[in-house]
Request: fold
Amino acid sequence: MSDKTLTRMELSEAVFRTVGLSRNESADLVESVLNHLSDALVAGETVKISSFGTFSVRSKSARVGRNPKTGEEVPIEPRRVLTFRPSHIMKERVDAGNKNQR
Reply:
């Protein structure tokens, strides 16, 4: 498994090389897309990217957790969490990549 992380700068560089926009325009485009995604998720909308996957926000209710060191019960506040479900195409691509690395 690789320890490499894809950054915003690398995404905008890929847009620059592929689409042919200037570096600044590419960076602005990547920022704009990420801002639209985050704004939609904050508003509670589901974001579906065809052939990639679906991002959605789930509400989790309050519950009692346990401190693993002490065993002490600790209340966990209700919260909203981000979930991602990859498309079957993405799952197949990742699986094929895993087979190539073995």
Remarks:
- The chain has a mean pLDDT of 93.
- Strands lie at 47-49, 53-60, 63-66, 73-76, 79-86.
- The helical segments are 8-19, 23-42, 88-101.
- The chain has three helices and five strands.
